[in-house]
Design a protein that fits this description.
Structural class of chain B: alpha/beta
Number of domains of chain B: 2
CATH topology of the largest domain in chain B: pyruvate-formate lyase- activating enzyme
Strand content of chain B: 15-25%
Largest interface: A-B, 23 and 23 residues
Radius of gyration of chain A: 30 Å
Shape of chain B: globular
Order of helices and strands of chain B: HEHEEEEEHEHEHHEEHHEHEEEEHEHHH
Number of domains of chain A: 3
Number of helices of chain A: 15
Oligomer: heterodimer
CATH class of the largest domain in chain B: Alpha Beta
Distance between the termini of chain B: 39 Å
Helix content of chain A: 55-70%
Strand order of the largest sheet of chain B: 4-5-8-9-10-11-12-16
Number of strands of chain A: 6
Strand order of the largest sheet of chain A: 1-4-2-3
Number of helices of chain B: 13
CATH architecture of the largest domain in chain B: Alpha-Beta Horseshoe
Largest sheet of chain B: 8 strands, mixed
């Protein structure tokens, strides 16, 4: 390993070499890349004929006033060693996008570079990088994009893979404002609903459009996936709206409607407040049978 | 499919440990399956890695007999069933089976017994004279799937036959009963069949026997002097569930006034981590919610409706037969049984009443 200097043209030539390790070509040559060469040497191998790390920096230097020479670190070793060196230099363990991970695994596969655990740990500190990338590469491209942009996780994307592309595109769009976990849940609901009801592509699109134009797409999806549960919720809501609103009385069916006991709670500060609450409860008596019927 | 045809299709290797080598079950299996590769290993852990699959059957003689209670589930009423694990694992491939997840890629293990478990059951029965002792082998595997090959149930049936209070239950989804029909006195032995509508059996129960085959097998064992039991478990809320389960109950009318020991009902349930395994099943989009014990079940009103409907049909078709719920909450019991007669409740109570076993065999509840 030797530290020396070379010209930008030499680096560009090395970057064009087929044997170079251009892993992160999708990386945007932004401000950080433009200043990086001031802080870090380029990594080269084979006497400077192969660029190992610094492609994005080379690209970022297009149109910049060139210095006469740039620092380079010349490396020896196997392609596995060079790949590990590039990943160390990149120093983004656990922060690579899915497409970047895929680039590492694809490059290793194309060049027959052995990816040992130490090297993959530089990409992601946990999990099996190779097997998850292979799963990622099997996804339809639009779902791979969604995973790469961190809209959904890999498992959810795989779960959705058999569904209609247009329908999923609508759902991905309308679920955009939701949190990651709620978006994931909404898509799973949709896939379970579509698979369980054996929807054809046309019906899938119709349903997705209906959900898409709903003022509350998440609730609309839940209603389709859990019609009975939603109906129970609605009955309880109607009861509380009718008998409890503004009374300070709280009605709670058991969690998931499991059990045979409904809880009623209220607070009071004065005898008059107590009397008002009890009076409200008495009026609620007429709806109690219907309320209890949600349990069985 | 006959049992031997099934074994030829599903068993790749027959293995046994040195401790089990001299057991009659090994000799029998080798005679019945002469063409299947076999090997002896020092112990269960010595089985080569590439053979640790469900296509391998390993016969072992455990140092200590696994004898205990059905684990039941927290916060739910349990039928207080005692279990003996003779067959661990199953290759029938029912989509809803919990073993699909925790026994996947594992060897099928056959645990031979030298009479120790039989003595333990006899001791439990002596300790509780006049009380029904329910004990069975179908907790972690199908009781009869591999029994024609190893014949491990016969010594239990024969060895417990003189105890009228012991109901030794063999639970199965197969029709593999013929090897047991020559037992002269089956005593209180019960052969139990899980029942589901044909559309569920065909789509979700893998290699299991058809409904017709199971009911025909039930006829044969009754004729041979056994008691029978039926388990509607797991009941699945298919589109025409009322008609589908009603049709089965109607067919059970053929068993009226015969020795039907009990019937259980349990709806589909599964631990949450098993959710991914539901993908592609007919019940993938059904409405499951988390119950008090953490398991996913149908919404309570949906379960209650199924139990009430089937229980009511069973009461009309097979009056006097105890019908109980499997792994259900006290509130569900109250709802489903609030119209039951005193006689019906007494019959169920007798089935569910626990016996104490820890003093006899050192097993705690």
């Amino acid at each position: 390993m030797t530290l020396s200097e070379c010209t930008l043209e030499s680096l560009r030539t090395a970057a064009r070499s087929d044997a170079s390790l251009d892993l992160f070509s999708a990386t945007d040559p932004g401000t950080i890349e433009r200043v990086r060469h001031r802080l870090s040497p380029f990594l080269v191998a084979d006497g400077g004929r192969r660029l190992v790390w610094g492609f994005a920096v080379v690209r970022a230097l297009e149109g910049e006033p060139a210095r006469s020479t740039y620092p380079i670190l010349s490396l020896d070793g196997s392609d596995t060693d060079l790949l590990a060196a590039a990943l160390r230099m990149e120093a983004r363990t656990d922060r690579y996008t899915w497409r970047e991970r895929a680039a590492v695994v694809t490059l290793a596969n194309d060049r027959a570079i052995h990816l040992d655990n130490q090297t993959t740990a530089l990409v992601a500190s946990a999990g099996d990088v190779v097997s998850t990338v292979l799963r990622f590469l099997r996804l339809p491209s639009f779902l791979a994009d969604a995973v790469d942009r961190e809209r959904i996780d890999l498992r959810t994307a795989e779960f959705c893979a058999e569904r209609d592309r247009e329908a999923l595109a609508i759902l991905l769009e309308v679920s955009e404002p939701l949190s990651f976990s709620r978006r994931k849940r909404m898509l799973r609901w949709y896939c379970e609903y579509a698979a369980g009801n054996e929807l054809d592509k046309k019906t899938e699109r119709e349903r997705a459009r209906q959900i898409g134009v709903s003022p509350q797409p998440e609730s609309a999806m839940r209603l389709l996936r859990y019609p009975v549960l939603s109906a129970l919720d609605e009955r309880v809501r109607l009861f509380t709206d009718r008998y409890c609103r503004g009374t300070g009385i709280r009605i709670e069916p058991p969690p998931s409607y499991e059990g045979d006991e409904v809880r009623v709670s209220f607070g009071f500060r004065t005898a008059r407040e107590y009397a008002v609450r009890v009076d409200s409860l008495s009026r609620a008596r007429e709806g109690i049978d219907d309320l209890l019927s949600v349990l069985f | 499919m006959t049992s031997l045809a099934y074994y030829s299709k599903t068993i790749g290797t027959l293995a046994w440990t040195a401790a089990a080598a001299d057991h009659a079950a090994v000799r029998r299996a080798r005679e019945l399956l002469p063409g299947i590769p076999h090997l002896e290993v020092g112990g269960a852990t010595d089985l080569p890695e590439d053979l640790r699959t469900p296509r391998t059957i390993l016969v072992d003689r455990p140092e200590r007999r696994t004898f205990g209670r059905c684990p039941g589930t927290q916060g739910h009423l349990c039928c207080n069933y005692l279990t003996v694990d003779l067959y661990v694992g199953c290759t029938l491939g029912c989509s809803y089976c919990i073993m699909q997840s925790y026994l996947r890629d594992k060897t099928i293990v056959v645990q031979v017994d030298d009479g120790e478990a039989i003595e333990q059951i006899r001791a439990v029965a002596r300790l509780h004279p006049g009380r029904t002792v329910r004990v069975g082998t179908g907790e972690v595997g199908d009781s009869l799937l591999y029994d024609p090959l190893f014949d491990l149930s016969r010594p239990f049936i024969v060895g417990l036959a003189d105890l009228p209070t012991v109901r030794f239950e063999l639970k199965t989804k197969t029709g593999y009963v013929d090897h047991l029909l020559d037992v002269e006195n089956p005593g209180g032995a019960v052969i139990a069949f899980s029942l589901n509508p044909p559309e569920v059996t065909q789509r979700e129960e893998g290699y299991a026997a058809s409904l017709e085959e199971r009911l025909a097998a039930a006829e044969r064992v009754l004729d041979a002097g056994y008691g029978v039991a039926f388990h509607f478990d797991p009941m699945i809320r298919i589109e025409r569930w009322r008609e589908a389960y009603g049709d089965i109950v109607a067919r059970l009318g053929a068993f009226r006034d015969r020795d039907v020991a009990w019937i259980s009902m349990g709806t589909m349930r599964f631990p949450r981590p098993l959710e991914p395994y539901l993908h592609g099943t007919s019940y993938e989009a059904h409405e499951f919610v988390r119950s008090r014990d953490g398991k996913m079940r149908y919404l309570q009103p949906l379960r209650a409706e199924m139990y009430r409907t089937v229980r009511s049909a069973l009461d009309r078709t097979l009056p006097g037969v105890p019908v109980y719920l499997c792994m259900e909450s006290a509130s569900m019991w109250r709802n489903v049984y609030n119209t039951a007669s005193g006689g019906q409740l007494r019959a169920v109570r007798d089935v569910l009443r626990p016996v104490t076993i820890q003093d006899v065999v050192g097993v705690d509840r």
